[in-house]
Write a structure and sequence with these properties.
The chain has 313 residues and is mainly alpha-helical. The chain contains ten helices and five strands. It is globular, with a radius of gyration of 21 Å.
Length: 313
């Protein structure tokens, strides 16, 4: 496991995921915390998808997007959590070069897809509140499907570009990735290539991904707030805001964690790991809770499903 001389990516056999620099006595506690959070992610997101698929009342564009959001949350947390948990008990903490590439690719795919899905959901809420009479026509099944497919397509393109750029670099000296999964910034610390072009392209890709989604979300909510404030009835205003509060909560948690992660100086890797935890595990755990606790339709559907289970038992 010692340091190696300069080596090309094609000769790299594996990496070491350093994980959290804590005393061994805390590994069991961290493992149990990860296990608890991942169990809640599985329960919450699988439960949300089950409710949406089984209750006809939730057969609407909003819940179609929400079902896909739950699938994406479940997917990218599953890319990270099992390997992170196994490393608490592993002496080597090794991950193969192919495994690192796959983890990097899948995580980038799903996290970018989530950003575009959140933008599509903001547009959906904009049409629902600002043009309610045209909502069934404008948010057709065809358009909703196209928006979801486009989200996955953008995620895939972005992931292919980022993965190919990162893993065609030359890696030198240590194989130890100072993180609990294969992420871009800790991998770049291992590279002995000139990173100027890589960083410029990565910055451009990030701008192309993040800016349009943020613009769609911000503009949609500007129109939504303007429309809601014109509603004279307090009850109607409250109901309109309640349909958006869940989505805003999810957007705030995800983008807040991502911005904190990438605005944190690279010289503080432990702080970056904590920030990464927020959007790799905490966000997928909170999203189902936010939507289930703030949404009467979901609560009613869950109650109906539990009553059916009781009858069967």
């Amino acid at each position: 496991m010692g340091d190696r001389g300069t080596t090309n990516h094609s000769e790299m056999t594996d990496f070491i995921l350093v994980g959290f620099r804590v005393c061994p006595e805390l590994h069991l506690l961290l493992f149990l915390l990860f296990l608890l959070v991942y169990a809640m992610i599985l329960l919450g997101n699988v439960g949300m998808m089950s409710i949406i698929m089984t209750d006809p009342r939730l057969n609407t564009p909003m819940y179609f997007f929400l079902g896909n959001l739950s699938f994406v949350d479940l997917s990218y947390s599953s890319v990270i959590a099992p390997k992170a948990m196994s490393n608490f008990w592993s002496e080597s903490k090794a991950i193969s070069f192919a495994g690192c590439v796959a983890q990097f690719f899948l995580f980038a795919l799903f996290i970018v897809t989530e950003g575009f899905l959140l933008a599509a959901m903001a547009y959906d809420r904009f049409i629902a509140i600002c043009n309610p009479l045209l909502y069934p026509v404008q948010m057709s099944t065809s358009l909703c499907t196209q928006l979801v497919v486009c989200s996955y397509f953008c995620g895939c393109i972005s992931s292919v570009l980022q993965t190919s750029m990162t893993f065609t670099l030359s890696f030198c000296a240590s194989r130890a990735i100072d993180h609990f999964y294969c992420d871009n910034r800790p991998l770049l610390r291992l590279s002995c290539s000139d990173l100027f072009v890589h960083k410029m392209i990565s910055f451009s890709i990030a701008g192309i991904i993040i800016l349009p989604t943020i613009i769609v979300i911000v503009i949609s909510y500007m129109y939504i707030v303007s429309t809601v404030l014109k509603i004279r009835c307090t009850e109607g205003r409250k109901k309109a805001f309640s349909t958006c509060s869940s989505h805003l909560g999810v957007v705030g948690v995800l983008y807040g964690a991502v911005f904190f992660m990438y605005l944190t100086p690279d010289r503080f890797p432990e702080l970056s790991k904590v920030a990464s935890l927020c959007y790799t595990l905490i966000t997928p755990m909170l999203n189902p809770l936010i939507y289930s606790l703030r949404n009467n339709d979901v609560k009613e559907a869950l109650k109906k499903l539990l009553e059916k289970k009781k009858i069967i038992l």
